[in-house]
Every structure is written in structure tokens, then in C-alpha cells.
Records
---
Amino acid sequence: MCKKVGTAEKGCSCPNFVDNSAANDGVQTWKETLEYMDSLVVWGQESMKANQKLSALQHKTRIMKALQSSKACMKEDMTERVAVQNKLHDICITMCKELGAFPEKCACPGYKDTTDKTPGVMTWDELLSYMDDVAEASVTAIKGWKSMR
């Protein structure tokens, strides 16, 4: 009857009806979580029994192999992380421009804001640099005048 009306999946109140729909796809229920935890306990106990049967030398060899493969995985992981970080660095500045945070508020790693914070106004550093340039130019000009005599 519920199938004909169209409420078989969600609103069926028929006796002995079991909902087999996939209403909780990707979501684990408490019952499923408890069953999974129980299976983990059994797996852990079986692993402990297997490890106890190993001699000390076998156990040490097994651990050393695991460490070696772990180091190899860590090295590979680091190269992958560097590649991803380099890719993101290029995207970061573009994203800052799109958000209007470029150049003053851009917080990308390795980015240094080089824009003039005081346009049209000379700071002390700029003045001292200009004075050094003038002194250097004047020394060069005086040498040129003396060579013309």
C-alpha cells in the first residue's frame, strides 16, 4: 500500500517494515561505530598475540623495516609537500589581488611589500640615499672637469 502512495521509503508506518534505504550514506551510526570499535579490539588482541610469538630478534627486525619504510615515506611526503607549497605560493598572490588585499595586506609566505608607503613625500632613508647619489655624482663631475684642463 505504501509503495502505491509513494511513502514507502520515508513515511511508511506499516507493521514489520524495515527501512533499507541509503538515508545515512557516508554517516556512521552509533551501532556501526560500536561494532567497528569491537572489531578493532579483536584485531588489537590478535596482533598482540602474533607479536608475542616473535622472538626478540624477529621483533627488532620487523621494527627496523617499519622505520626504514617510514623514513622513505617521510622523504617522499616532504617532496610532495614542497611541490604543493610552491604551487600554492603562486596562487596566493593572485588570490590576494582578487580579494583586494594586495599589496599592503598580502600575507603570502615569502612575499615582501615593496610599494612606496609615502608617495610624493621623501623619507629620511630616501633623503640619505639621494644625498649619497648626489655626492657620488659630484665627485665624478669634478674628476671630469679636472681632466679637461
Note: The mean pLDDT is 79.
---
Amino acid sequence: IKLDSKSIFIQKAPTNPCDVLVRPEVQAMLGGDIGMTLRCLETHAPGDAFMERTNSMWILRFAAVLFGSCHHSSQDRFYHELAVVSHYRLYKDFPKLGDCSCFALEAMWALRRVPGSVSHYRSVLVFNTPEDKWATWA
């Protein structure tokens, strides 16, 4: 599933557009109310860590309603608040100079500053669903 937002506003955006995403191990320390919790299990390098994550993000529950049923244990971990371990990697200047990308087992998120703007970014989030069986109308 791909969510592409052409222009999102980021208040107090950093001067360097590569710094718009926070390293996963730092995000785990900071916490926050974004619909998921992160706990750093192991750090390999700055921006490269194994994280334990729980989810209650509305967009994942919405995708569950649209694209699949939730009856399998892996789906319970994906769509609900049971913990799952993922390998997170944060890349700066990737895929292009000035971009910032974060990769995890089930998702990829890339941010690129909109040309001519300081605070507007294009956001592309791509994630998979844990089941390849779709409703006949999907």
C-alpha cells in the first residue's frame, strides 16, 4: 500500500532536509504519541537498530478493514498492540541528495523537501500487509 502526500507542512523544519527524520534509537528514547511505541533492542550503527514495536496507528486499522481480515497471529501483531521486532535503517541523502528515508521490515518512508519551500515536504510511505489474500472487490 502506498501513501503519497505531495506537500505536507512540517513546523520548524530543520535547515538540512536530511535531518527531518529522527534516528530510530533516538525516537525510542524520546517516545511520543504517534500510535506506536518503540523500544531499542540493539544498535548496530547510528540509524541502524533492531526495535521492538507495538502499533495502534489508525491507518493500519483502516488498511485492515479495506484490504484484509485479522485472524492470524502475525496480523494481530501488525494491526494491534502486540510487540513485533523489526530492523530499522535510516538513510540520509537517499535515494537522492537531500532526501531522508527510513526502512523497516514492513514499511519504507521517504521524505523530500518540495523545491522552493523550507517547510513543505513530499512524503511517500509504502507498507505491506501481512496477508496476500484480498477480498474479491479489492
Note: The chain is about 15% helix and 40% strand.
